[in-house]
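Predict the structure of Triosephosphate isomerase.
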Amino acid sequence: MKYFIANWKMYVGLEKSRALAMQYAGLVLPQDVTGVICPTTLSFTEVSRAVAGTNWQLGAQNVSWTPEGAYTGAVSAEFFREAGARYTLVGHSERRYIFGETDHDVRKKIMAALSVGLTPILCVGETADDLASGKRQYRLKKQLMLALEDLPNADRVFIAYEPVWAIHGIGSGIACLPADVADIHNWIKEEVKQYGISEPTIFYGGSVNAGNCAAYLTLPNVHGVVTGTASLHPAEVKSILSFLATC
Ligand code: PEP
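Done. Here is the predicted structure for Triosephosphate isomerase.
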């Protein structure tokens, strides 16, 4: 199984999300490909309606770690599950570095997601400063350890390697070299064994598009891609799915 994750971030409001979802509904997902759309919380139900009857699945971009109560502005994992989510991104770099989410918050969100049956997609990645100071592995090791050490059912957590510097907007928009992605994914595979994850599902994210997706999706430990900018363009999505059909 390969995965295509579409993170629409805060790029599209209600009307545009509905229109985009209808275009996605017209794109056929190849066999053995799971497609997950992560719309804004506001658009979630509309997108769900637009893709009903197709194989597209839904994910949250973020969840609260609290189940319910007096938490203004928060939306719980359980509320997303009730609305039809099967997945949730957790610890996306924009949450970590723009909104100040800590490794501790990330851990609590993973636990909340698992407790209601959502599959958490744990995003990890080094910043440009980490990379420049030779701390790439240090950062990844720390993020993985604080999220996964002694975590019951850690093998139900998916991992997305998303170098912060490679993401459009928060980073440079220059994708990570496929050779480096290959090395890091192999390293992550070994690293998470200590947390009881023997066959991890690992995605690459960071400026993936129709032109470069093949270089990542043909690597042995790359089980899918997370796309932000490209996911807003149905023609790009269609091309990536066509390539996935050949994998
Ligand atoms: C992301 O933010 O998860 C992402 C992969 O974004 P982009 O494809 O725009 O770099």
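The first strand starts at residue 2 and ends at 7.
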